[in-house]
Write a structure and sequence with these properties.
This protein is of the alpha/beta class. The protein is 43% helix and 14% strand. The protein has ten helices and eight strands. The strands form two sheets. A six-stranded parallel sheet has the order 3-4-5-6-7-8. Helix 2 packs parallel to helix 4. The chain is globular.
Length: 232
């Protein structure tokens, strides 16, 4: 999500998502993002893109704790005609600390509708590992702060190795975030990590260029804002 501000130009999420959370605007913003993602997925399917890519959408605890959260999701699915399998919903570990019983019910309903569920920035939260068995999680995304140091070995390498093994033992996928160098990628491959994301593969691009990336496996260089960081 980017905000084209009339005075400050293009703002990245770090500039406004925190404020949106504090004010509650994250709820309507999150619904807009969800609807846009569903419509985009439908457009990609119409283009007959082979193996149309799934779209990851972040969910905040404020959204999940809304009493009518699932009703709104069902309305969006009906309006857009999108397949839930086309979207992967990302939550952070802190969500489990808000209201575990309610979150458990919401995630179970999302899984029942065939959404894929992912824990974002895994390893940076403070909740118990017991939620990995309690909640229907499909994928763990290893935080970029750990991935950035794997090439140098040491503690970060051991942490990533542990998370990859944990995911494998629980029949989950593990995704390494923020991969920027071939050396990092090679180390991750040595650890058995099957999935990765980051600037090594592509920077953020518009939807049409994303289609070109899927079809050809590469995109043209894209200008990056000074404070933009690798996806993670």
């Amino acid at each position: 999500v980017r905000w084209q501000h009339p005075e400050h130009g293009l703002l990245l999420p770090a500039s406004f998502i925190g404020l949106a959370e504090e004010t509650g605007l994250i709820v309507p913003l999150g619904l807009w993002v969800m609807r846009t993602a569903m419509l985009q997925y439908q457009e990609w399917r119409k283009l007959d893109v082979e193996h149309a890519p799934t779209i990851s959408v972040n969910l905040s605890s404020r959204q999940i704790l809304q009493p009518d959260f699932m009703d709104r999701i069902d309305v969006l699915l009906q309006e857009t005609g999108a397949s839930p399998r086309g979207l992967e919903l990302e939550i952070t570990e802190s969500v489990f600390m808000e209201n575990a019983d309610h979150v458990s019910q919401m995630l179970a309903q999302l899984q029942k509708r065939d959404f894929r569920l992912c824990i974002d920035d895994f390893g940076t939260g403070y909740s118990s590992l017991s939620y990995l068995q309690r909640f229907p999680i499909d994928r763990l995304k290893i935080d970029r702060s750990f991935v950035s140091g794997v090439a140098a070995g040491g503690g970060d390498l051991e942490l990533v190795n542990t998370i990859v093994a944990l995911a494998r033992n629980l029949s989950m996928d593990a995704v390494a975030e923020g991969v920027e160098t071939m050396e990092q990628l090679e180390r991750l491959r040595d650890l058995g990590a099957r999935y990765a994301q980051g600037f090594l593969f592509s920077r953020a691009v518009e939807s049409q260029r994303a289609v070109a990336f899927v079809r050809s496996g590469q995109v043209e260089p894209v200008p990056v804002a000074a404070d933009e960081t690798s996806p993670g």
